[in-house]
Amino acid sequence: MIRPATPADVPEIVNMIRELAEYEKAAHEARVTEEQLHTALFSDQPAAFAHIAEHDGEVAGFTLWFLTFSTWRGVHGIYLEDLYVRPQHRGGGHGLSLMKELAAICAERGYQRFEWSVLDWNEPSIGFYEKLGAVRQDEWLKYRLTDEPLRRLAGRQD
Asked: Where is the N-acetyltransferase domain (predicted)?
């Protein structure tokens, strides 16, 4: 079963974010707090959205996503920030069901792009996405500013 996340899901989502960060060998980067996530998902103007996959009443996985906007297409799209299915639930169709839910949202709302990133070493996920018909975007390089370089560019040293 796939359903929108509720405020009661926030602690479990934070736990799964940490599990995902550990899997991606970046546990030290997962700093999100329950309060931050609650605000991001459930404020008057949410910054992000989440869906939960359940199996026999147990949380099996989640997606966390936000809206993008394409100047070329002139409409919103979805950026999938996180897709995670707990190891004991993998292979049961939960990841596919979560992806189908987001694709359905795109179709219902007229969004024309559904995008995400995947680590280049994560062969199981790459294979999964390519089976869905996703096309790798090798011509685009991803850049990121965080921590000190971001503060320096902003002219802040705090």
From this structure: 1-155
29-47 residue pLDDT tens: 999 999 999 999 999 999 9
Q: Report how far residue 63's alpha carbon sits from residue 68's, in angstroms, rounded to the nearest whole number.
A: 16
Asked: is 2-154 a CATH 3.40.50.920 domain? The reply is no
Tell me, rounded to whole angstroms, the distance of Cα 33 from its chain centroid: 16
Beta carbons of 50 and 62 less than 8 angstroms apart:
yes
Conformational region of residue 133, where left means phi above 0, alpha means psi within -120 to 50, and beta covers everything else? left
Active-site option among 23, 79, 84, 129: 129
Per-residue pLDDT of 75-98, as tens digits, reads: 999 999 999 999 999 999 999 999
